[in-house]
Structure formats: structure tokens, C-alpha cells
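Example record for the data management plan.
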Amino acid sequence: MKGPLTGIRVIDLTSVLMGPYCTQLLGDMGADVIKIETDKGDSTRFIGPSRNKGMGGAFLYAGRNKRSIVLDLKKEEGKRAFYRLVEDADVFVHSSRPQAIEKLGLNYEEVKKVNPSIIYCGGYGFSVNGPYGSKPAYDDMIQGASGLAALQGEVSGTPQYMATVLADKTTGLVMLNAILAALYSRERTGEGQEIEVPMFETMISYTLVEHMYGLTFDPPLESSFYPRVTSKFRKPYKTKDGYVSVMIYNDKQWSKFFKLSGHTELIEDRRFIDIGERTKHIDELYQLIEETLMTKKTEEWLDILEEADIPVMPVYRPEDMFNDPHLKAVNFFEKTCHPSEGDYWNIKLPIGFSKTPVALNRFAPRLGEHSEELLKEAGYTEQEIQSLVDAGVTLTTKKQEQKINNNK
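Corresponding structural encoding:
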């Protein structure tokens, strides 16, 4: 099957999770993603348990729909091979610090000499134009610096990180959007360009959508925190036998809930008459939900609230999702068999295209699985490829198998 980005070639020099998540999505949509790795492999390969070294659970998703080539870019022969791959590429994505990419000689000015129409995307920790430009960055420190950890602290009493790599994945999504926009611009103008996507600024922009709040005005009208979402009573609510997530938001929904909870007198209460007043008294409302939901079992509340058209969902652990009837109906988890890793559950891309459907076209590759194939596509002969292998510039699966056999 051919996705909407079929025919687009992406050179992927990213690692950890921010960049690999971006390029995974590009690959899912049909782009030919060429993942360049060192002979140690991207660290993402080692996230989660594995049946074989370098093929961890997270990598089976983040590495899918990509081809892997090992290149030592610190060696001139490796750099030459890189530029031969770039000649026919549409996009180059990296997640290295500015000084590292400069040292390798792979900055935008150098790359566009070889391919003037390239879309060059750098996923950085901080904008290269500021004093933090050369600092390293990881998800935890960006969650802290962007205000996310402090926001969680409003609920817990002490700053906390979200229990997911939110900054990495969110910035990866912004990188994806930026690349698609630049490709569209190139279609109209014929011109490539350089894109900068910094984690720090991206996550501050993301966090402050609702949490500029009173600080939007000069002088400030109130604090920065949007009180509805920082209330310590905003949480999954305990029932007699579990938990449910309930979101009562508009006038109609609150009116129905007041009736269900036996507090019809609150329908006309001035404290709760509209969204503005409810926000001022949100703790009282959330405490009412908490007290009410403890009176019945989870399944009872799911039926009652759905009947009243009040938004509600069960609270799942990851393993519970496999039994969800909706996810089963849309085949969200697809059991498949990896050529070297065996049976595993693949997560479906949650996007549907009516004319250009997306699919799992390539399994996550073993380290250097496509080195030989890609070098041949770039015009290298078998003898030249062997010379690169011998010089330690590249690594092929054939070479790795020979090492394994020699060690037996």
C-alpha cells in the first residue's frame, strides 16, 4: 500500500525518542526513511525488554518503516557516503546539538550545497540563537523548565514529571508538522529551507496555551494557572470497585449531573451558573463529583452517565486496553510477526486516509540491516562496500553474522 508521502526520501540522523518518533510517523505515512546509526546503534534500540540485543520493545515501534545503515560520519569515507545519500533526498532530520552537527560538517549550508532543495530540520534542545543554544536537553529537564513539573506540583504538592516522555513526543509531532509544511511550501516555490524546532520553546508554547491565563494581560489580571486543570480534586474518581474518568463541562452536562447527584438546588446556584463562575468554584464541584461517584460501582456509573450523555470513560492500565471493545473493533493492536523478533503487537497509526492508506511496510530494522542495499542504491560497488566495511565506516548484517559465527 502507498501512503500519502510515498516518493519522499528522508535521511534520519536522530536518536533517543523526539526525532525517531517524528521520523517513524513520516515512515508510517509512506516516506522512505533512511536511519543513519553508529555501530553502537540508536539508544532507542535498548528501551524495553528484547529477545535480541538492540531490538527493544520501544524500538519495534519507533524504528518501524525505516531502513538502517551504519555510517561513521567522523571518517571522510562515511561523510562522502552520507552526501551521496543526501543527493536524492527530500528531507534531512537530525537531533544533534549545534556544535556537534557543525563539527561533523553537516550544517545546513554544507548540506544544501549538495542538495539545494533539501528540507533540513534540526530538532534541538534550545533555539540556537539564544544563550542556551549549546546546552544538552532531555525530556525531564524540559518538563521542569517549561512549567509542566510545577503544574503537576500544584496538584501533588511538589513538582513532578509527567509519567510519559511528553516533551520528546510533543516536540516530535511539531517537527513532523514543520516538515510537512516545508514540503508543501517547496511544492509551490521549488525552494528548500532550514527548520529549527527547539524543545524548550516548543514546550513552553504548548504549556502556556491555557496557563498564561491572567499573565496574558499587562498588568496581570490573575495568576498564570488555569484553576480548572490545577485543582487537586481533578483526578480519576473512585467508585465502589474502581475508578472512572468523568468530564462535566458545559451548562447542560452540569444540570444533568446535579439532578443525578440529588442536588437539583445547585442548578440555579449563582456559583455554578456558567463556565466562568464554575471555574472560580471548581474545587467545590470536583468534590461533589468525588462524593457522588463513591456511591456506585464503575459499570453502574458508566451506564448512568452515558445514558445522560455526560462524558465518561473507564480508567485503564496499558494491559486493559487490549480488551477494550472499541480498540478491538478498529484493530488498533495488530498481532504480527517480526522476521527476527517473532510475534509482537503492533500499534496502529491512529490516522485514516481514504485514498492513501498507511500500513506497516517495513519492520523495525536490525542495526545496519540495509547498509549494503542503500550503498548500492547510492552507486557503490560490492568491492567499494567491502572496503568501507573493512575500514570500519559501515556495518552490514552479513558482517555481524560473521562475527557471531566466529565467536561460537
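Summary line stored alongside the record: The mean pLDDT is 95.
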